[in-house]
């Protein structure tokens, strides 16, 4: 029971954790919607799974990536199981950075189309934000806070 309490515990007055949580959720949700729903020019669920399988990524990992980006970002926005959702995104984005070849494209994003692909700067920001939520929790205005109160 102590581990569950710690999982949901957070500084319920923290504006900074709230801001990190909202920024991360807002940035990742459209990527999840591309993968899960085919919105914003994405492949949709089956297309994304097929794309990942063409890269040699097993079906289960493809599904977990889609869930991490789609359901995970919604959970983060709501502050629901924030630590788990942020950890899921951290793992997913670490995989994307290395397996997606971004690590070989240098540091910078491809703002002007002058390099082979996107670098790792976006991933560093996402990983840092996700790690902050894993360590600190959800902050203000989170479903986790309601759960935490009920567990006390």
TrEMBL record:
It is a multi-pass membrane protein. The keyword Transmembrane helix applies. InterPro entries: DoxX, DoxX-like_oxidoreductase. Keywords: Cell membrane, Membrane, Transmembrane, Transmembrane helix. One of its GO terms (cellular component) is plasma membrane. The chain crosses the membrane at residues 56-77, 84-103, 123-143. It is found in: Cell membrane. Coiled coil: none annotated. Signal peptide: none annotated. Pfam families: DoxX. Belongs to the DoxX family. This is Putative oxidoreductase. The lineage of its organism: Bacteria, Pseudomonadati, Bacteroidota, Bacteroidia, Bacteroidales.
């Amino acid at each position: 029971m102590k581990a569950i309490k710690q999982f949901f515990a957070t500084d319920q007055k923290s504006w900074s954790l709230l801001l990190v949580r909202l920024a991360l959720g807002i940035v990742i949700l459209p990527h999840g919607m591309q993968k899960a729903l085919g919105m914003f020019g994405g492949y949709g669920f089956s297309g994304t799974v097929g794309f990942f399988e063409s890269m040699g990524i097993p079906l289960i990992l493809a599904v977990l990536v889609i869930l991490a980006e789609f359901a995970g970002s919604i959970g983060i926005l709501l502050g629901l199981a924030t630590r788990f959702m942020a950890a899921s995104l951290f793992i997913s984005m670490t995989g994307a950075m290395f397996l997606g070849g971004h690590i070989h494209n240098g540091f910078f994003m491809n703002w002007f189309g002058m390099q082979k692909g996107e670098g790792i700067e976006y991933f560093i920001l996402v990983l840092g934000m996700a790690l902050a939520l894993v360590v600190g929790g959800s902050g203000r205005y989170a479903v986790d806070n309601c759960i935490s109160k009920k567990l006390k």
